[in-house]
Amino acid sequence: DVDGIHIDDYFYPTTDSSFDSIAFNKSSYNDLSQFRLDNCSRMVAGMYNAVKTHNPTALFGVSAQGNVNNNETQLFADVVRWSKEDGFVDYMAPQIYYGFENSGQPFSDVVEQWDEMLKGTGRPLIPGLAVYKIGNEDTWAGSGSQEWIIDKKIIKRQIEKSRTAANYGGVILYSYQFIFEPESSLEHAVNDEIAAFKPLLIQ
To answer: How much of the chain exceeds pLDDT 70, in percent?
Structure first.
């Protein structure tokens, strides 16, 4: 008796061709990437169907990696297909754990990319927001590495941006621990962020 089933972004653990070479060689495929993409798609579709068979009103969704290209080329998760076609998910909740100034994956661009993928499907976009980065250096963000330290209202701005999406269905704050049990050195920064975005959540 649950409202839904939600899975994280764990699909293929490696791009090493030896990982599934026996299964691939026994298959009818001649393209390893497509073989892996289809394997993951069958798994997701199977989970979706299992949920709906047991409880048609329960929701099934995926918290995929925010980087669409990485999903396809590293995890072999065909998030474009799952977003656009029926029978895979009821919503998408990508981990858009990037700042606005991230040099490779700026937050606004990524939200818009996912929103466009879901256009016309009726499936909500529920961006995951990285509250765990508040007050910390964003090591892989390039020129935006200091953004989470400097910007005291980044989560508030991200919620506001997310709400402009045509398919907006809410946000997810990852994770509970970093909001309610922050490290002592980050407590002030976290409290500043909470004070900034809390009014948006109680409107």
So the answer is: 100
pTM (global) more than 0.90: yes
pLDDT, residue 188, reads 95
Report which residue type is found at 201.
Answer: L
Task: Write out pLDDT tens, residues 159-192.
Answer: 999 999 999 999 999 998 999 999 999 999 999 9
Report yes or no: 41 and 84 within 8 Å, Cβ to Cβ: no
**String of DSSP letters for 82-95:** HHHSTTS-SEE--B
Which residue's entry shows tokens 């995890």?
Answer: 75
